[in-house]
Amino acid sequence: MKPIALVLLTAAAGVAVGWSVSRTHQASVVSVFGPAIGVVDSSVSLEEKPRPVMTLLNGTVHEFGRMERGAKGACEFQIRNDGNATLEMEVLKASCKCTRADLRKATLEPGEVTTLDLEWEAVMEGMAPEFRQEAPVRSNDPSHPHTVFAIAGELFFAVEVNPSRVSLGNIRSSVAQQGAVEVVCNTQEDFEISDVTLQDESLRDYVSFEILPLSQERIDEHQGKSGAKVQVTLKPGLPPGRFHCEAKLQTNVLDAPVPLSIEAQVVGDISIVGEGYSLATNTLRLGRVKRNEGREVKLLLLVKGENHDKIDFSVAAIEPDEGLEVEISDPRPLKNGAITQLSLLVRVPPNAPIANRRGTEQAPAGSILIETTHPRIKRMQIWVRYAVE
Q1: What average pLDDT score do residues 46-62 get?
Q2: pLDDT at 122
Q3: Which of 199, 233, 267 is the last residue of a domain?
Q4: pTM of the entire structure?
Q5: Which of 1, 53, 96, 321 lies 20 to 30 angstroms, CA to CA, from 270?
Q6: Three-class SS of residue 223?
Q7: Cα(293)–Cα(326) distance, rounded to whole angstroms?
Q8: Which secondary-structure segment (H or E) carries 24?
Q9: In terms of C-beta density within 10 A (0-12 exposed, 13-18 middle, 19 or more buried), how is residue 240 classed?
């Protein structure tokens, strides 16, 4: 029995030694190569990587409300770094030159606060009443890589004209026509229009103005503080074609006058038709004229109304007086005597002087002034656009 016990004791000792060696080897492997696959070591903690956090303390949009054109506005946006790493920021290009954005401090340590100053000037003519301008800011915060700060509001003029012009459409030259605009002041309650002048005072025979009070109800509808109504009258006798007049309203609010345009398309007892002629602009287009050939165009003068067959026409002036010729034929009846027709020959003769009359600021159009014995339409002007080459 003793030999058997000795064998069992020896075997047990061998197993113990082997298990000890195995554990030692495994620990060695883990220490060199890390824990074995499938083995979780609860003693190892994974910490989050430090990062900045861009916190917007008062949002990204500032509402200016109603703002007068030409005025300046400014606002501040507060930014704080709520992270545990440095916050880096950069202001990018604003949406227009009228907007300026500046960061008082572009680098923030954790817990620090800075201000983005945003300034804007309402200098853009033609800008829509409702405006929004933006200033983007780039940062190293992964959740705010590109943040857009904006200002918004509604623009108004100190003095506004509603509608912006007097447009009467088609009118008859033998009848007086009226239109009106409402002029509203948005800045003070004692608004007055002291005078109305015309850019071309020679048109004073055809247009007159009357300043009338504007009801408080209409002022309130325009969200203004005071106002006036300007009634425009176009008198009988306007020559046929497009009528355009520029007026200026002098007020007690602005040093510069307020512009006002008056437009109408005049149709009446006398009309002109023919190739290259535009009734809308009273313009005859001859185009490019070869100097050695010249060019001639026949227009028709059509006269109707009372005593239409007794109206005389004559050429009062031609510009240029050399190289442009006009001839009016004798009248003849049409439609059983209801209309009188005359021919108007406009001619650039052969070998006329070289000329550029294309109707630009540098090359003004030629013109033909025709006088009549009509009781109301005393003169008619035709613009001639051409170039002799």
Answers
A1: 88
A2: 72
A3: 267
A4: 0.53
A5: 321
A6: coil
A7: 17
A8: helix 2-33
A9: buried
Tell me the torsion sign for CA atoms 200, 202, 208, 212: positive
* DSSP, residue by residue, 333-383: EETTTTEEEEEEEEEE-TTPPPEEESSSSSSPPEEEEEEE--SS--EEEEE
CA distance 139 to 148: 11
C-beta neighbour count of 63 within 10 angstroms: 11
Burial 67-82 (b: 16+ CB within 10 A, else e): bebeeebebebebbbe
* Run of H or E including 31: helix 2-33
Q: Could you tell me which residue, 48 or 350, shows the higher pLDDT?
A: 350
Q: How confident is the model at residue 26 (pLDDT cuts 50, 70, 90)?
A: very low
Give the pair of three-digit tokens for residue 271.
């009309």
What total number of domains does the chain contain? 3
**Which one, of 193, 188, 222, 185, lies nearest residue 210 by Cα?**
193
User: Measured between alpha carbons, how far is 90 from 179 in angstroms, rounded to an integer?
Assistant: 55
Which positions ≥6 away from 130 have C-beta within 8 Å?
152, 153, 154, 155
In-domain check, residue 309: yes
| pLDDT tens-digit series, residues 140-155 | 999 999 999 998 888 8
With H, G, I as helix, E, B as strand and everything else as coil, classify residue 303.
Answer: strand
Angle (nearest 5°) at CA 146 between 143 and 150: 120
Phi, psi of 123 (to 5 degrees): -110, -5
Q: Which of 134, 156, 178 represents a domain boundary (last residue)?
A: 156
129, 76, 122: which is closest to 96 by C-alpha?
122
Q: Kindly report the number of other CB atoms within 10 A of residue 221's CB atom.
A: 12
Instruction: Verify that 207 and 315 share a domain, yes or no.
Output: no
- According to DSSP, the residues that pair with 290 across neighbouring strands are none
CATH of the domain at 86: 2.60.40.10
Q: Is the peptide bond before 142 cis (omega within 30 degrees of 0)?
A: no
Reading phi first (left if > 0) and then psi (alpha if -120 to 50, else beta), residue 168 is in alpha
User: DSSP E strands: which ranges in 82-145?
Assistant: 87-91, 99-103, 107-108, 113-121, 130-139
The residues, ordered by sequence, that sit 6+ positions from 327 with a Cβ below 8 Å of its Cβ are 344, 345, 347
